[in-house]
Amino acid sequence: MKLYKYRSISENTEKIITEKKVWLSCAERLNDPFECTIQEIAADWMTKEAKKDMEAHLSGFTMNLVSHLENNLSFYGLGTIEMKKILKTIRKKPTLIRKYKFFREFVKGKTGYYPTDIRETFEKFDEQLKNVGIFSMSKTCFSPLMWSHYADESRGIAIGFEFDDEINKESGKLLEVNYSDTFPSFDNKGFLVITSFYMDEMGRPYPEKKINIEDSTFRNAISTKSAHWNYEEEWRYVEEEEGLFDYPGRISEIVFGLTCSREDKLSYINLYEEYNEKKIKYYEIIKKKNTKSFEKIEFKNE
Q1: pLDDT in tens, 101-117
Q2: 184 and 178 in contact (C-beta within 8 Å)?
Q3: Whole-prediction pTM value?
Q4: Cross-strand partners of 132
């Protein structure tokens, strides 16, 4: 499989060749205002899970409080009268949200930190999604719109990356974009989550949950765009965060745009061959005879 990165003639484009790295931009900077989020895809499931988690926290807290009352034991340093007031206050709160807020504020006041709130975990899933690094490529090098939008009105180039299908399946980091005006489906099985621990300001281990990049819902969110963009025939190479990374595949060709100058063509050929030993092919875009479409022919330096 071959995928193309459209680029204008620029210093950053030259760096792709000289530094043998590509820049993965975070998802938040992508051009589709309708790119979906985890919150949108799994909204109903998240609401149910948050309700279950809040109820479990409250139940555990009140059961513990009642047990201390019945056994005449101190609870967070409180005496019997104060414990009864706390229990009465919780029961009088009209909604689950208010009960839960009171419980969290109480724990914060006694310990200095809030208990884990699953709703905050879900919000972090979207932050994680926004921070994913994405390198966009196209399946075609014949799109006039792509040449116009991403290669300086056809004055630029398209770098052809070649991929081994089996390697890409194993890595799971190369995703074909699905174009749809509806959100991806969510099967209600939950998320594939990784839990890691870090130390808080008081030296206590604190769990942090992240969605595994291999989670199906996470991948669907990364790789779904509105149907307006289907002309791009996009594939995405993804990493957990933005930054410079090695080539996602090997460069096998450079295609020069319809109006790319001969000077720029020769400059990029010389640049590639100065920094790379492996031979590649060079092509140029031309208008296909008697049509309103493009084709490519081998560029001959004659």
Answers
A1: 999 999 999 988 888 88
A2: yes
A3: 0.81
A4: none
